[in-house]
Amino acid sequence: MKTYDLTTPMTEKEINTLQAGDKVLISGVIYTARDAAHKRMIDTLEAGGSLPFDIRGQMIYYMGPTPAREGQVIGSAGPTTAGRMDFFTPQLLERGLSGMLAKGMRSQTVIDAMQKYGAVYFGAVGGAGAYLSSCIKAAEVIAYDDLGPEAIRRLEVEKLPAIVLIDRQGNDLYKIGRKKYECLEEGILG
Amino acid sequence: MKTLDAKIITETIKDMCIKTNCIMSENIKSTLEDALNAEISPQGCEALECILTNADIAEKGMIPLCQDTGTAVIFAAVGQDLHITGGDLTEAINEGVREGYTDGYLRKSIVDGPFSRKNTGDNTPAVIHYDIVPGSDITITVAPKGQGSENMSAVKMCKPAEGLKGVEEFIVKTVSEAGANPCPPIIVGVGVGGTMDKAAVMAKKALLREVGEHNPDPEIAAVEDELLTRINKLGIGPEGYGGTQTAMAVNMDVYPTHIAALPVAVNINCHISRHMTVTLCGKEQ
Ligand code: SF4
């Protein structure tokens, strides 16, 4: 398993070379958005408006944190299931989004759009929100404050551990990994 | 007749909401450590290491293990000789959830209706299951349930002719289709028999068992073992990254059913498997 230090925004070369199954440590600025923020962004675009931040080359983290205690940057901050965002994702990819950080399987439509527009889907460990919050050094709500945990936040992260789930070529770790151990299992336990 | 002040119930629920969201149980921790030792996939090991580190960080800082602090699912087994004083029991439970989720900095994820979808702001109402039992105690379980795993759950009204084989196929298929989404290694709760609703509640209750504890009926226990082996052969692995450690346990409960029925419910829980139980004793008047 290869490990890369990755600083956002990713370069074209990084987008093209990362492979499903690679480990990355993400540093730099990323933005959060989950169900309600996605819906509002797409509604805004459809009404002819513009997105609350320049999405080109950026990475979105599908995450809604717990409230921060006094003195904390952010509360527990792990990924949510990405599939619910699939409906909105191709439109954002078309506008230049180049990275997504979340957990869970993606639809073929999203994978096709990732290949077409050039994007990588990263996985953070679901259910590791306390650990992941320790990699977030700054957090600021930049839009849709009324959505509470679902507001859009600008995060500064440092060495946030993630894995490449789906690469630019459309290789999907969920499928590859499963196939590998599905076959092995018969031999080992069968 | 013994009595118990509703305020004590509120306090207890509040405390459990906070603790169970921030502290992983020893039972789950040691099961995950065993999984890490057994896992052969490098990505799977990476995920398990991350999960175990997370448990340490969460407990030390009292930070929720997961940002989805869940729907507050409460089981209350109320002794029939217990009299609750000073308020309404359901309200006392909801007040405990309200205070726990607010004071414990837990995420409020409940919306007021399936279509209106406005956040209630305090994670109430809880989903409460009452049982009336002999005695004068109340045993309360708080089991915050994350939606990532809840959404992968399913119910099927099998035909009796499908038998055990049909039930097993449905369980394995449900886990297989869930894949990475419920944050494996998972716990699979299964309820078979009764009616549709009975099966679903049994499945959820089955998630409360300690890992390593089997159904007391040896035939059902053997089915649990067989299902666990089959599920771990699917290759899904920790977090779905591929591997041999897909489930920690399959817990099945059964109940008598109708001559024309074979309901089966599968409720999936994620690796953090939060639940905590406390018994409060009534006081003599
Ligand atoms: S399914 Fe995953 S993200 Fe959801 S509560 Fe469980 S561990 Fe957290």
Question: What labels describe this entry?
Answer:
heterodimer, A: 190 residues, alpha/beta, fumarase, 29% helix, B: 285 residues, Dihydrodipicolinate Reductase, domain 2, four-stranded mixed β-sheet, 8 helices, 11 strands, 26% strand, binds iron/sulfur cluster
What does the model show?
The complex is a heterodimer of chains A (190) and B (285). Chain A has 190 residues and is α/β, with parallel strands linked by helices. In chain A, 29% of the residues lie in helices and 26% in strands. The longest helix of chain A is centred in the last third of the chain and has 17 residues, at 173-189. Chain A starts with a strand and ends with a helix. Chain B is α/β, with parallel strands linked by helices and 285 residues long. Chain B folds into 2 domains: 2-21 and 65-146 and 274-284, 2-Layer Sandwich (Dihydrodipicolinate Reductase, domain 2); 148-269, no CATH class. Helices cover 39% and strands 26% of the residues of chain B. In chain B, the strands form 3 sheets. Chain B has a 4-stranded mixed sheet with strand order 4-2-5-10. In chain B, α2 (26-38) packs antiparallel against α3 and α6 packs parallel to α8. The longest helix of chain B is centred in the first third of the chain and has 20 residues, at 42-61. Chain B is globular and about 55 Å long. The model of chain B has no long low-confidence stretch (mean pLDDT 97). The chains are: A alpha/beta (190), B alpha/beta (285). At the A-B interface, α5 and α6 of A face α3 of B. Iron/sulfur cluster (SF4) sits between chains B (66, 68, 146, 148-149, 182-183, 270, 272) and A (78, 126-127).
